[in-house]
Amino acid sequence: MADIIDGRAIARQLDEKTKAQVEELVATGHPAPGLTVILVGEDPASEVYVRRKIKACERVGIRSSEHRLPADTSQEDLLDLIASLNADPEVHGILCQVPLPDHIDTRLVLRSISPDKDVDGFHPVNVGRLSTGTGGIVPCTPLGVMMLINTVIPDLTGKDAVVIGKSNIVGKPVANLLLDAEATVTVTHIYTHGLPAICRKADVIVAAAGAPELVKGDWVKEGAVIIDVGITRQETEDGKTKLVGDVAFDECQHAKAITPVPGGVGPMTIACLLANTVQAARRSMVGNGDTGSDYADVPSRTMFTGSASKPN
Ligand code: NAD
């Protein structure tokens, strides 16, 4: 039987560390880190996500605030709000919940958030820092993926890793992080030929395609580690819904370890958002520079160690 990588338990441990960091900042005379969430319109799913994020902030002592704007808010007003939050020293993290209404240019809005407060890690400056291994804020889900891998394989040097999916929010940043940890990385996508054979060689498979049970048991070599990022909501026969991952979980029990869906990557995402907010606050308050040393649980050669003599 494969070991189950318990994302809920690992996320709780990360929250404890984040809480301790908040307490340390406050004990040394700094304000508690502050996260501001902007919600435009009344998308029901976004409402749920925002509520969860605010509640999570309370758990670890992060001050949170919400800006709820009507769906007809102009792009100019939204950009003005972000500019004022960028300039506010009490705000360390800014999160603009997507999707935004159609009349708003989402890319422009996300790029208007200061890279130092971009706790989602989506700003091109942070993407650039990630791909050059020079610190910055790492997107939450990919960071969570690396932390989960770290619990099973602390040293990825020379390991064969396959990433299924090449999105900007999951696949590409995960691939960059794996490369930074000295794994040999194959990034695959919907047009990749021979995906089963590629996966069969992998020591680590990160599945982020959004294709339910795409990865079959005979795609997985004995002893591989599988991280299932995929989440698809499916209707069951009794009219209820269940969440299904990208991996045929029951067929993959010859793996060394595997994440379940739900209870694997999902819980790590919010825990990493909190960690990113504290990271951003520490940098602004105590000048943690680009060392990114808060990401101690991520296998890495250069990203989080600030190594000056990094190999390419
Ligand atoms: P996306 O749709 O932006 O990208 C999907 C990628 O997978 C694309 O590169 C596509 O080419 C590839 N792909 C799709 N079908 C494939 C197939 N049959 N074979 C090979 N490649 C295939 O999706 P995304 O935003 O990266 O999200 C991927 C999945 O991860 C979704 O299920 C999403 O819900 C989930 N997700 C989970 C979390 C979390 O917190 N757990 C966070 C983000 C995304």
Report the helical percentage: 25-40%
Number of domains: 2
**What CATH architecture label of the largest domain applies?**
3-Layer(aba) Sandwich
**Strand order within the widest beta sheet:** 1-11-8-7-5-6
Written account of the structure:
This protein has 312 residues and is an alpha/beta fold. The chain has 9 helices and 11 strands. The strands form 3 sheets. Strands 1-11-8-7-5-6 form a 6-stranded parallel sheet. Strands 3-2-4 form a 3-stranded parallel sheet, sandwiched between helices. Strand 2, helix 2 and strand 3 form a beta-alpha-beta unit. Helix 6 crosses helix 7 and helix 6 packs across helix 9. The radius of gyration is 19 Å and the shape is globular. The structure holds nicotinamide-adenine-dinucleotide. Nicotinamide-adenine-dinucleotide (NAD) binds next to helix 9.
Index terms:
Rossmann fold, alpha/beta, 9 helices, 2 domains, 312 residues, 37% helix, 6-stranded parallel beta sheet, binds nicotinamide-adenine-dinucleotide, globular
Topology:
Layout: E1 3-4, H1 7-27, E2 34-40, H2 44-60, E3 63-69, H3 75-87, E4 93-96, H4 106-112, H5 124-131, H6 140-150, E5 160-164, H7 171-180, E6 184-188, H8 195-200, E7 204-207, E8 225-228, E9 232-235, E10 241-244, E11 257-258, H9 265-286
Parallel strand pairs: 1-11, 2-3, 2-4, 5-6, 5-7, 7-8, 8-11
Antiparallel strand pairs: 9-10
Bound molecules: nicotinamide-adenine-dinucleotide (NAD).
Quick take:
The chain is built from nine helices and eleven strands. The chain has 312 residues and is α/β, with parallel strands linked by helices.
